[in-house]
TrEMBL record:
Residues 76-141 form the WRKY domain. This is WRKY domain-containing protein. The lineage of its organism: Eukaryota, Viridiplantae, Streptophyta, Embryophyta, Tracheophyta. It comes from Liquidambar formosana (Formosan gum). GO terms for molecular function: DNA-binding transcription factor activity; sequence-specific DNA binding. Residues 1-24 are annotated as: Disordered. InterPro entries: FAR1_DNA_bnd_dom (IPR004330), MULE_transposase_dom (IPR018289), WRKY_dom (IPR003657). It holds the Pfam family FAR1. Residues 15-24 have a biased composition (Polar residues). Residues 1-14 have a biased composition (Acidic residues).
Amino acid sequence: MEDFEVELGDESEEPQTQPIDSSSINSQNLYIPIVMHGHKPFVGQEFDSLDNVHYFYNNYARQGGFSVRIGGSHKKDNVVVRKEYMCSKEGEKIVRNSKQPKRRRGLTREGCNAKLAVVKSGAKFRVTVFVEPHNHSFSTPGKVQLLPSHRHVSLAQRSLAQQMSDANIPTCQQMSILELQSGGLQNIGCTERDIRNARRNVRKANDGHDADMLNEHFLAQKEKNPYFTYTIETDDENRISHIFWADASSREAYKVFGDVVVFNTTHSTNRYEMIFAPILGVNHHGQTITFGCGFLCDESHESFIWFFEQWMKAMPGGPPKMIITDQDPAMEIAIKNVLPNTTHRFCIWHILKKFSEKLDYATYDRHYQSFRNCIWDSENPQEFEARWVDLIEKSELQRHGWLTTMFNLRERWIPAFVKHIFSARMSASQRAESNHAFFKKYVDKRNSLMDFITRFDRALHNRGILSYNPTILIITNTPCCGPRLH
């Protein structure tokens, strides 16, 4: 609030009142606030603006121990000529006849008549009514900051709270940080609920503008680096259905490390329930890198075809030699259409997990380890096929439908069939699972698309910083050399 001058007038202009202790009650059960000299309003007092009126009366209320509510106003030629400010306990509770169940709440209205009224007088506002007595007791100085009109989330607090929310710091912990920063809860000036409401108001203000903000963000990224690329597709109602984007570092990394990629989708990353679809790889330090990302409206083969087409347009150097995915029919159709010359391999980790679901407990307990040894230890396709057939006969599972299906698909997931193809030591989409776990530290299902992109960019940046560690070790550490010990 800017500094302002208030005409206090002479001492003789103030109404003469006997000092009454705020803890005492007069014959009419009325309470009189006690405030510092010169901080009490009086009839005839003038202010330069309504903001100054509100500030002065609210400051008086804070010292006195009550809360202020803004009352009605009168206008003439669209200019306010009269305004009222009253105690927050003014009026009575309105009881409405309704069959709907109601939440039981404490009484906040007690029929208090304390108020201040001003009228426009030339360029100023003059106090014409000042009712001083209240019909209720006052809050103590240690608790007055909790009253509604004295709580306020400052711009600095709002900005800090937003930054902490972006870092997934819970609101309760945000309050602890603000407490340490301000020297105590009583000095924060707002409550945990106020912080939540301020964040909700920001989200509400951005509702309906998420798509525009996202497009502006992508345009700004492309301006900063022309090698950034993105595509947004909308449906017949002009709603976003698919999004693809890849930054410059992803496209450059694909040139070097794009022989083997992992593709997997995940849910619960945004409030619109769009499906997050990243394509991942591994660098020369064995660290996960991102080759592009997307949001899809569903997991149909049409959506996957669109995604892979956009991805191939963005990536230099042609299609990968191998792609690892879950066993998903829609993905399989899309990969056959867009990446016909790429070896499509199923995630062996997900298939091994299904053994416990597809086999009864006794069969699983007795034979799973034998199946596992057969899968991992076979040196070539012929050895695997012989061991598998023998194991099926011994376990009497010749008519087990799922095992038969998986044997027919053996070229897609058994290591012995793909040893001749470079796989960067990846045989499962577990790298995608760990990637999702990493990003879940930054995002959650309440995020808008713009929130997600902002947090995702920060997560990628942080992962990039962490990826420097092995390189730093190579530069700073000298290998220890010495004679071989026998």
